């Protein structure tokens, strides 16, 4: 009898559209998948629910759940329902249906993880979705160039929604509270993983916050898992003008002892940076250059192309 090959256990860290891209790729190669999601969003529907109900912002968690829905008619339908928003100009206008479902379960169960697991059971998700912390977090960023009359002055911006849209140069971020507790289930998932995937996503507001939660950062550092850093296809608003090397440099500034095994970079983005190999080596990583961008030319990852690269690295 041919032995059954064990699928790799993977923890994917991030938030928003970037995490959805990595999950959409990873779900094609394993069902031993845990999404560890940022909880610092304070804009839109998530921000309103966070303020009104004193709960975690559900939006990034909802997007991760939608990305893990089964790839059949029912799964795609549920994903569309989760992502759909109420129209009109009433009290519900702009709210995502999935956000209300998640927030309602949290209020009923009094347990964020149990609520997310219940949604996962309902949707038959291919993997588990967990918050990186069980308390909502606030991002503070030091920026320069906010005031054109004082271009070198360091100013502080507060809030994920504000930082994500700034055109000023972000120098560093921190979390409030400054040593938030990690979600215990997320810490355990990281310890149990064969691979840890960080990125793609908004660098300052989706990725780096994970490395500022002490228990989570320690788990990533101590885990025997192989660590994969996936760079974006192109800079976002908050990293406008950053080269691939600059993305790595900023990460190393926030987590100087963290080492990676692989750094995945799209070939077109990599071609702009002659120092990329040296920066990857500085964090202990092999540079993996591949065509992983969407074929339509948009600055997004193609899930199938990205899945092929992950599969090669994971031997899946």
TrEMBL record:
It comes from the Bacteria. It is found in: Cytoplasm. Keywords: Cytoplasm. CDD domains: YvcK_like (cd07187). It holds the Pfam family CofD. Its main location: cytoplasm. Required for morphogenesis under gluconeogenic growth conditions. Belongs to the gluconeogenesis factor family. HAMAP family: Gluconeogen_factor. This is Putative gluconeogenesis factor. It comes from Luteococcus sanguinis.
């Amino acid at each position: 009898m041919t032995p059954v090959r064990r699928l790799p256990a993977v923890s994917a860290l991030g938030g928003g559209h970037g995490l959805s891209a990595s999950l959409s790729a990873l779900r094609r190669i394993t069902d031993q998948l845990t999404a560890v999601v940022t909880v610092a969003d304070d804009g839109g529907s998530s921000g309103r629910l966070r303020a009104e109900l004193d709960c975690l912002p559900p939006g990034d968690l909802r997007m991760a759940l939608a990305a893990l829905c089964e790839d059949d008619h029912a799964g795609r339908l549920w994903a569309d329902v989760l992502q759909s928003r109420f129209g009109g100009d009433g009290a519900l206008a702009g709210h995502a249906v999935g956000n209300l479902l998640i927030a309602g379960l949290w209020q009923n169960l009094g347990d964020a993880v149990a609520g997310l697991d219940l949604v996962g059971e309902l949707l038959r998700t291919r993997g588990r979705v967990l918050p990186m912390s069980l308390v909502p977090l606030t991002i503070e960023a030091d920026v320069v160039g906010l005031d054109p009359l004082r271009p070198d002055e360091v100013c502080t911006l507060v809030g994920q929604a504000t930082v994500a849209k700034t055109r000023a140069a972000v120098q560093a971020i921190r979390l409030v509270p400054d040593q938030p507790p990690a979600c215990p289930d997320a810490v355990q998932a990281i310890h149990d993983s064969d691979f840890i995937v960080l990125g793609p996503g908004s660098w300052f507001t989706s990725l780096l916050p994970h490395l500022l939660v002490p228990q989570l950062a320690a788990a990533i550092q101590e885990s025997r898992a192989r660590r994969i850093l996936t760079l974006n296809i192109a800079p976002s608003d908050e990293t406008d003008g950053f080269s691939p090397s600059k993305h790595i440099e900023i990460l190393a500034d926030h987590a100087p002892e963290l080492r990676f095994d692989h750094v995945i970079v799209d070939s077109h983005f990599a071609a702009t940076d002659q120092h990329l190999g040296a920066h990857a080596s500085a964090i202990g990583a092999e540079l993996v250059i591949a065509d992983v961008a969407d074929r339509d030319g948009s600055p997004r990852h193609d899930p199938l192309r990205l899945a092929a690269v992950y599969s090669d690295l994971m031997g899946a």
